[in-house]
Specification:
This protein has 295 residues and is an alpha/beta fold. It folds into two domains: 119 residues, ATPase, nucleotide binding domain (Nucleotidyltransferase, domain 5, 2-Layer Sandwich), CATH 3.30.420.40; 167 residues, Nucleotidyltransferase, domain 5, CATH 3.30.420. Helix content is 39%, strand content 21%. The protein contains ten helices and twelve strands. A hairpin with a 3-residue loop joins strand 1 and strand 2. Helix 3 packs across helix 10. It is globular, with a radius of gyration of 19 Å. The protein starts with a strand and ends in a 5-residue tail after the last helix. The structure holds zinc ion. The site of zinc ion (ZN) has 6 residues, from loops. It comes from Actinomadura physcomitrii. This is ROK family protein. Belongs to the ROK (NagC/XylR) family. InterPro entries: ATPase_NBD, ROK.
């Protein structure tokens, strides 16, 4: 069966065609700027058409990992990363894009958690993906816990500097998203810091680079600890492009989680995502293979 996984991100989209193809075929594109649903959809349809032309046999199942909140009818209710998508009937559009195929979609954090749990051979896991935002998910007894929005856990009641995309202060995402980290690094260094600059600064032991990352590590550790207290997962996984691109990121979170140990509570072991920045894409393919989201 030919399957297509699509990982929809805040700035780019990754696609993987798998099945009869050896090896899987990958494609990716950046969303056009500024955000406009018509232009976005045309870009997606163009990329799908190019992959479809190479799919033999035809695509039978599609899984889509979405960062947006989508209601049961398939309509986007919130996506701070691309607010113009609110109200878009993404379910109907996806079904129209893939006539004859089984199309399913789910939260990107939920499917990433599933993919990482499976890869680790764990029946339960919590996942935090650090990228343009902070996505997250949990798996219990081998199944995703729907609607587990770990990025919007409030972990800092005194936060007033960075507002989360959702409008609140104090969310994990407000402290730990890639853009939030880079804004902090820019303030601390006093000049614009791109991601590569942050990575180099960290490798060189620059104080401003570590100071820009510490609030992110603290927020992620607080989230892992809270989720650990509630769910007692076998593992906690830190993924996403920001974590994958900065050596020592996960270890710094693990160190802080260990600092929250208390008698009677064993914090979950914290591991880097085995699938690197591709957890959601693998999860989207699992969704295509097995279903589990809305059909
Ligand atoms: Zn939030």
């Amino acid at each position: 069966m030919t399957r297509l996984g699509i990982d929809v991100g805040g700035t780019k989209v990754a696609l993987r065609l798998a099945g009869a193809h050896r090896p899987p075929r990958d494609a990716a594109f950046r969303w056009p700027a500024p955000a406009d649903p018509a232009a976005d959809w045309a870009a997606l349809a163009g990329e799908v058409a190019r992959l479809r032309a190479r799919a033999d046999p035809p695509i039978a199942a599609v899984g889509v990992a979405l960062p947006a909140a989508v209601d049961s009818a398939g309509r986007v209710t919130a996506w701070p990363g691309r607010p113009a998508w609110v109200g878009l009937d993404v379910g109907a559009r996806l079904r129209a894009l893939f006539p004859g195929a089984a199309v399913r979609w789910a939260d990107d954090g939920d499917v990433a958690a599933l993919a990482e749990a499976e890869r680790a051979g764990a029946r339960s896991a919590v996942y935090l993906g650090v990228g343009t935002g902070v996505g997250g998910g949990a798996v219990l007894d081998g199944r995703p816990v729907p609607g587990c929005e770990a990025g919007h856990l409030v972990v800092d009641r005194s936060a007033r500097e960075e507002r989360c995309d959702c409008g609140r202060f104090g969310c994990v995402q407000a402290a730990a998203s890639g853009p939030a980290i880079l804004r902090r690094a820019t303030r601390l260094r006093g000049s614009p810091v791109p991601f590569t600059g942050l990575r180099d600064g960290l490798a060189d032991g620059a104080r401003w680079a570590a100071a820009a990352l510490e609030p992110a590590w603290d927020a992620l550790a607080a989230a892992v600890t809270g989720l650990g207290e509630l769910l007692h997962p076998e593992i906690a996984v830190i993924g996403g492009g920001v974590a994958a691109g900065l050596p020592g990121f996960t270890e710094a979170v693990a160190e802080r989680v260990a600092g929250y140990a208390r008698p009677g509570y064993a914090a979950p072991p914290v591991r880097p995502a085995a699938l690197g920045a591709l957890s959601s894409l693998h999860g989207a393919l699992l969704l295509a293979e097995r279903g589990g989201g809305p059909a």
